[in-house]
């Protein structure tokens, strides 16, 4: 057996050298990490020591006959080969490729006496190698398998690159013109329902393709503006109808129902010369009755307070000479079914009536949607939006009208009574939705 020692930087380097020196049938006996160079054991460079071997036959110089020695027992400290026959011949010096490791399979030279004997050969103890890494004997053909694996990986990368190229081409084919991209992003920023935005943009793009016209900033803006205008029902009357006898105001807490009632009452008294009466059932909020009573005193209108549905008939009788009655309901938790049922019993009135939902534009649309869906069981007729001066996001107006088909009525933009209220102009809202944000 031919044994050889290699000191290399990496295992692939060792495999290449072993294959070149010892052939493809060589096996690795042992590996371990060592450090070479440096000073006093410091700053040494990390290397790998590899012991490899290859089976070989040794020739006798005298007769040319080849004798194969089979080891019967191999131990780290002692080797005892059995010699069946020893022929007298001239010994030949055996040179090992690895002088530090004894060649335990060297040919044994016959003794001078031509006798067959069992000889126990004491050999120096083989240096014990304590490898930090243990490798099973591997074939030097391993680099071929590694190369095949690398080729397979490269092929997969090529396929992924081709797939990404096709996806990029498909994305470029469906890419929106830049003017429509700006409008789409602006509507998203205004919190308009993404499904509605996608529908409007797709219809606008289809119109441009049908007309075979180029998309410009102004033409895209005008066409999207027209699409948004179709969402609103601008033909219906936004004001309180002259035939309406009772107007119910419903909504969650803190949206400004009482202040809104005072503003509308001032409009009816001062602008339309109608006699107005107040009914309030808001007996839960502290000073709610006093607040409405103050407005009633200023406008010189009567006020009735009801504590239960049974008090309603008496209140209507007291206000029978009024042209229109505004009823202020308590702002309650719209998620509580008991409060909703209680409010529903207060809305059962005789004669022409309207139910107006009051919503704050500072409310998240997710909550606004839940509120509207809950109060919609009262047969809502119109919607009033408050606190427009406290936000710059108006997409919720479009969403509520589109999803619940409610008629827009008024919008408030301050706390001054009776000034800070006006009819909601949908085209003004659309302009606010599409205008570029200020820097």
From TrEMBL:
Membrane topology according to the record: Peripheral membrane protein
Presence of the UniProt keyword Repeat in the record: no
Annotated AAA+ ATPase domain residues = 243-389
State the InterPro entries in the record.
AAA+_ATPase (IPR003593), FlhF (IPR020006), FlhF__GTPase_dom (IPR047040), P-loop_NTPase (IPR027417), SRP54_GTPase_dom (IPR000897)
* Listed GO biological process terms: bacterial-type flagellum organization; protein transport; SRP-dependent cotranslational protein targeting to membrane
Q: Which family does it belong to?
A: Belongs to the GTP-binding SRP family.
Entry protein name: Flagellar biosynthesis protein FlhF
Q: Which organism is it from?
A: Paenibacillus ferrarius
């Amino acid at each position: 057996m031919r044994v050889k020692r290699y000191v290399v930087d990496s295992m692939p380097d060792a495999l290449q050298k072993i294959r070149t020196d010892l052939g493809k049938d060589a096996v690795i006996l042992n590996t371990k990490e060592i450090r070479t160079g440096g000073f006093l054991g410091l700053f040494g460079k990390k290397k790998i020591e590899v012991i490899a071997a290859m089976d070989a036959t040794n020739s006798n110089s005298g007769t040319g006959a080849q004798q194969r020695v089979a080891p019967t027992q191999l131990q780290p400290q002692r080797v005892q080969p059995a010699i069946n026959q020893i022929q007298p011949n001239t010994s030949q010096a055996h040179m090992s490729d690895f002088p530090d490791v004894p060649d335990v399979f060297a040919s044994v030279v016959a003794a001078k006496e031509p006798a067959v004997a069992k000889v126990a050969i004491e050999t120096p103890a083989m240096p014990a190698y304590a490898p930090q890494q243990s490798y099973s004997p591997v074939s030097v053909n391993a680099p071929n398998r590694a190369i095949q694996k690398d080729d397979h990986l490269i092929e997969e990368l090529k396929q992924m690159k081709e797939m990404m190229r096709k996806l990029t081409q498909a994305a470029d084919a469906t890419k929106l013109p830049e003017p429509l991209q700006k409008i789409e992003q602006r509507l998203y920023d205004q919190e308009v329902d993404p499904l509605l935005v996608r529908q409007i943009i797709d219809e606008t793009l289809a119109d441009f393709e049908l007309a075979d016209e180029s998309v410009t900033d102004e033409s895209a803006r005008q066409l999207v503006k027209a699409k948004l205008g179709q969402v609103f029902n601008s033909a219906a009357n936004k004001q309180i109808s002259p035939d309406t006898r009772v107007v119910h105001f419903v909504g969650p807490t803190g949206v400004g129902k009482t202040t809104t009632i005072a503003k509308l009452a001032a409009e009816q008294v001062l602008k339309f010369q109608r006699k107005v009466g107040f009914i309030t059932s808001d007996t839960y909020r502290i000073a709610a009755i006093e607040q409405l009573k103050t407005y009633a005193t200023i406008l010189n209108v009567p006020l009735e307070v009801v504590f239960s549905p049974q008090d309603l008939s008496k209140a209507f009788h007291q206000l029978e000479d009024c042209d229109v009655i505004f009823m202020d309901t308590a702002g309650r938790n719209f998620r509580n079914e008991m409060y909703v049922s209680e409010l529903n019993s207060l809305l059962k009135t005789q004669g022409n009536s309207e139910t107006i939902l009051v919503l704050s534009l500072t409310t998240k649309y997710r909550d606004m949607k839940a509120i509207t869906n809950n109060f919609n069981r009262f047969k809502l007729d119109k919607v009033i939006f408050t606190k427009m001066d406290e936000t710059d996001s108006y997409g919720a107006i479009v969403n509520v009208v589109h999803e619940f088909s409610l008629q827009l009525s008024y919008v408030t933009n301050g706390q001054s009574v009776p000034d800070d209220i006006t009819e909601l102009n949908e085209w003004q809202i659309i302009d606010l939705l599409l205008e570029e944000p200020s820097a």
